[in-house]
Design goal:
Elements: H1 12-19, H2 23-30, H3 38-51, H4 57-64, E1 69-74, H5 78-83, H6 85-100, E2 104-109, H7 115-124, E3 130-134, H8 142-149, E4 153-156, E5 169-172, H9 174-187, E6 193-197, H10 203-215, E7 224-226, H11 231-244, E8 250-253, H12 256-268, E9 278-283, H13 286-289, E10 297-300, H14 303-319, E11 329-331, E12 334-336
Parallel strand pairs: 1-2, 1-3, 3-4, 4-5, 5-11, 6-7, 6-8, 8-9, 9-10
Antiparallel strand pairs: 10-12
Length: about 350
């Protein structure tokens, strides 16, 4: 058996000797290669654990043709990424699932159109095995950039129809969740229900507008106000509604951050919630809903879980090169009732 001196790193030869297999067999097991019988795989893995062997990354790459890294691309500027807890939750889910697959996360974001060239060069350089991209906008170049790189990809959120054929995505039931929120307001006897919408260039926001209109088919267009998923835009839109439509007695807000802003405006104006105006948000982000006054009724989507699902779809693409593309996944939503409605 090859000797291992105190303090030295265990070698692949030592692993092979401990497992009683050839060096080539040990290499195939520790580097993810196929064609090794299960009993021998178990022996090698036991030896790896007993010796504390760490595979050489360069050797592993030669065997598996993988880098052990995935690009996570967020189509938003830095200030949005670090101020909106939605991104924190989704990246946390992605990171935890990548860790479970022994893969590293490489975070990239888009400050402006010039960043697309930087991202394209990085993806073309062969540094990552695949890409996860979310918060896409209707005119976004990212789907085309990723397509030209010819790497497996999964999107977070439904992309624009025709923008990325064949790329699976993970999203929640935005339209169904919006319908449930508005139906709840109707069930409370509210008769003048407004909607504070998200950006017009994102499918999640458009789907939530459609869900609102599914229930309130004849709603006055003046009851729909535009926001951009930030707290400040929710406060501003709520002020506009109170100024132009004092009859409003219910509001469905397209995300929790904007709902937090809307509640702040209502509080500053002396409007009672839910007695005068009932408010329902969308997301159920704990860091937001625990701080609102009153506690926010909202539509829950499993943000962290969707991040995990994105990774699982990508791993299926990587493990089944040339096979069928996995189907996109739409996750359910749930109304969580609290004090605001």
């Amino acid at each position: 058996m090859p000797e291992q001196t105190a303090g030295s790193r265990p070698t692949l030869e030592a692993v092979a000797a401990r497992a009683g297999v050839s060096r080539a067999t040990a290499s195939r097991v520790v580097n993810g290669g196929a064609g090794v019988r299960a009993p021998l795989v178990d022996k090698v893995r036991r030896a790896v654990e007993e010796l504390g062997y760490v595979p050489n990354h360069a050797a592993r790459t030669l065997v598996t043709r993988r880098n052990g890294a995935v690009a996570v691309i967020i189509a938003e500027p830095e200030f949005r990424i670090f101020s909106d807890p939605f991104f924190e939750q989704q990246v946390r889910g992605i990171s935890r699932e990548l860790t479970a697959h022994d893969s590293q996360l490489v975070l990239l974001w888009v400050e402006g159109p010039g960043d697309h060239d930087r991202i394209a060069r990085y993806l073309d350089g062969g540094h990552v095995d695949g890409a996860l991209a979310f918060s896409l906008h209707n005119d976004d170049e990212l789907p085309a950039v990723i397509g030209r790189a010819r790497i497996p990809a999964v999107f977070g959120g439904r992309p624009v129809v025709g923008s990325s054929p064949g790329v699976p995505y993970v999203d929640c039931d935005n339209r169904g969740g919006a319908r449930e929120a508005v139906r709840h307001l109707v069930s409370l006897g509210r008769t003048s229900i407004a909607h504070i919408a998200g950006p017009r260039d994102q499918t999640s926001a458009l789907d939530r507008v459609d869900g609102y209109r599914d229930v309130l088919v004849d709603a006055d267009p003046d009851l729909i106000r535009q926001g951009d998923f930030t707290e400040a835009s929710g406060a501003r839109a709520m002020a506009e509604l109170l100024d132009s439509r004092p009859d409003v007695d219910g509001v469905f807000v397209a995300n929790d951050l904007m709902a937090s802003g809307a509640l702040r405006t209502l509080r500053e104006r002396g409007v009672r919630v839910p007695e005068d105006v009932a408010v329902v948000g969308f997301d159920d982000m704990e860091s937001v809903v625990v701080t609102t006054r009153p506690a926010l009724t909202t539509v829950r989507q499993d943000i962290e879980g969707m991040g995990r699902l994105m990774v699982r779809l990508l791993m299926r693409l990587l493990d089944d090169s040339g096979g069928d593309t996995p189907a996109s996944v739409i996750t359910p939503t749930t109304l969580v009732r609290r004090a605001s409605a």
